[in-house]
């Protein structure tokens, strides 16, 4: 069996059959996003619970067709093994957060990541659009947000304690039309784009554009870490952000909308509550990092992302909130992948491929699901993002899709090396090889801060 993520069941048959891309489809009752795929001498048949299930069956057929099927110009007729696959996801939320605020990811690479998520049967792209270091969402009502907040004069290079800088400006933003295009492209691949505008902390880019918003002034931040300058909690600032979020809602149809709420030193919880209430009044579900549990009563529809371990996520469940598990010690994919001295900018705790594959979300029978997070302070290009994400993201996909139960890492690693890495090669993904970085993937002399 060469499929990844591992399906609910795979029953091999005898022989192979020619496949030209055509198959029969019918709708049947079953789990959401589920399907049954039958390959026989009579042809290929898919029985799917819904459109998403049919799409996932297509991804399985693509895998069965061999690595060449992942190229921009796939082969014509291929040979498929006779088999039957029964499959459906374990979790409804199978997400990836990409931080495009610290380092801007060009639109074509963002679209490429939608394809990579879809190929792994992941279904949520959480976009961290704003932070101290950049504002990436075009605001037509407040254009200085992207015109000023979208650019910084320099960037810290390597760990902030070293004092090193890149010595070049950085920036960019997505127009609303860009983001509508992204949303439509993702929807066609059954991926939901969840936007996030972070308040009241991580807001220096907005404050640089409109100084009256902040407790103190200053430009777009060129450093990493936690900035003590937060948004003012007066009503005029809250009104400003109500308008910003209304623009966001006009672009993103996602039911869930992120408001951040994290690492706000001295931040006012009333700000978070009022924005959460505004989103709920607009028929959306607020989505906040686990610090939002400390700001007082929130709409019960609020979704909590548990990143500082999982205990706070369990507490949120007890309070009646839906939860997405994303604990930093397990699924922060910007963290270093080994203790090898050639790992580029080694930060955070060591998080190996095996560590990700053996992750088991706490409260698995109660949570919405889980997501892997890619913070980009030290991922300043699509090549660096690929290196951090893959193949660990392939392991994470198996965690959130495949059935619960013991996982055999040795079997997974064999399947990955023999079958899935060639697919990533065909897609042009510059992943980290299993035995360590290639020479051009290292960054000699650039300091990190491993924990």
> What is the C-alpha radius of gyration, as a whole number of Å?
22 Å
Q: pLDDT under 50 segments (min length 5)?
A: none
Helix proportion range: 25-40%
The beta-strand count equals: 19
In percent, how much strand structure appears in the residues? 15-25%
| Domain tally | 2
CATH C-level class of the largest domain is: Alpha Beta
Distance between the termini: 38 Å
Mean pLDDT: 97
Structural class determined from secondary elements: alpha/beta
Shape: globular
Assembly annotation: single chain
At CATH level 2, the architecture of the largest domain is Alpha-Beta Barrel
Main sheet properties:
8 strands, parallel, barrel
Number of helices: 13
CATH superfamily of the largest domain: Glycosidases
CATH topology of the largest domain: TIM Barrel
For the biggest β-sheet, the strand order reads: 6-7-12-13-14-15-16-18
Overview of the structural elements:
The chain is α/β, with parallel strands linked by helices and 451 residues long. The protein has two domains: 9-87, Chitobiase/beta-hexosaminidase domain 2-like (Chitobiase, domain 2); 93-402, TIM Barrel (Alpha-Beta Barrel). Helices cover 29% and strands 21% of the residues. The chain has helices at 51-64, 107-119, 144-147, 176-187, 204-209, 235-251, 269-281, 311-318, 328-331, 353-357, 382-389, 392-401, 409-427, and strands spanning 9-19, 24-27, 35-40, 43-48, 78-87, 93-99, 124-128, 130-131, 134-135, 151-152, 170-171, 192-199, 256-260, 285-289, 303-306, 322-325, 347-348, 369-374, 449-450. A hairpin with a 2-residue loop joins strand 8 (130-131) and strand 9 (134-135). Helix 2 (107-119) packs parallel to helix 4 (176-187) and helix 6 (235-251) packs parallel to helix 7. The radius of gyration is 22 Å and the shape is globular. The mean pLDDT is 97. One of its GO terms (molecular function) is beta-N-acetylhexosaminidase activity. Residues 26-78 form the Beta-hexosaminidase bacterial type N-terminal domain. InterPro entries: Beta_hexosaminidase_sua/sub, GH, Glyco_hydro_20_cat, Hex-like_dom2, HEX_bac_N.
């Amino acid at each position: 069996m060469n499929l990844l993520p591992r399906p609910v069941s795979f029953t091999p048959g005898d022989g192979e059959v020619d496949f030209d891309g055509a198959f029969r489809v019918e709708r049947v009752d079953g789990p959401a996003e589920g399907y049954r795929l039958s390959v026989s001498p009579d042809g290929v048949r898919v029985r799917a619970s819904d459109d998403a299930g049919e799409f996932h069956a297509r991804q399985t057929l693509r895998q069965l067709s061999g690595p060449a099927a992942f190229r921009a110009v796939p082969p014509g007729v291929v040979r498929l093994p006779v088999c039957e696959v029964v499959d459906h996801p374990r979790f409804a939320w199978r997400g990836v957060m990409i931080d495009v605020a610290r380092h801007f990811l060009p639109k074509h690479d963002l679209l490429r990541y939608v394809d990579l998520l879809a190929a792994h049967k992941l279904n949520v792209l959480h976009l961290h659009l704003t932070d101290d270091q950049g504002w990436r969402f075009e605001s037509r009502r407040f254009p200085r947000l992207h015109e000023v907040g979208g650019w910084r004069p320099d960037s810290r290079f390597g760990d902030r304690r070293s004092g090193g800088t890149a010595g070049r400006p950085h920036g960019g933003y997505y127009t609303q039309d860009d983001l509508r295009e992204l949303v439509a492209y993702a929807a066609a691949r059954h991926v939901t784009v969840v936007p996030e505008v972070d308040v009241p902390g991580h807001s220096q880019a907005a404050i640089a554009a409109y100084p009256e918003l902040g407790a103190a002034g200053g430009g777009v931040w060129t450093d990493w870490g936690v900035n003590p300058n937060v948004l003012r909690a007066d009503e005029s600032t809250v009104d400003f952000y109500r308008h910003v979020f209304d623009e966001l809602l006009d672009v993103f149809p996602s039911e869930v909308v992120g408001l951040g709420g994290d690492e706000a030193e001295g931040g006012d919880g009333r700000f978070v509550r009022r924005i959460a209430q505004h989103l709920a009044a607009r028929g959306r579900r607020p989505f906040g990092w686990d610090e939002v549990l400390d700001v007082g009563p929130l709409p019960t529809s609020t979704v909590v992302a548990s990143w500082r371990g999982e205990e706070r996520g369990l507490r949120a469940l007890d309070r009646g909130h839906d939860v997405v598990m994303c604990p930093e010690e397990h699924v922060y994919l910007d963290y270093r992948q080994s203790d090898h001295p050639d790992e580029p900018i080694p930060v955070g705790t060591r998080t190996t491929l095996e560590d990700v594959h053996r992750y088991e979300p706490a409260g698995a029978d109660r949570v919405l699901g889980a997501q892997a997070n890619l913070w980009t302070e030290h991922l300043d290009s699509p090549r660096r993002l690929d290196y951090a994400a893959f193949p660990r993201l392939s392991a994470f996909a198996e965690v959130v899709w495949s059935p619960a139960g013991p996982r055999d890492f040795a079997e997974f690693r064999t399947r990955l090396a023999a079958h899935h890495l060639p697919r990533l090669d065909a897609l042009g993904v510059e992943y980290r090889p299993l035995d360590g970085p290639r020479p051009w993937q290292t960054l000699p002399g650039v300091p990190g801060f491993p924990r």
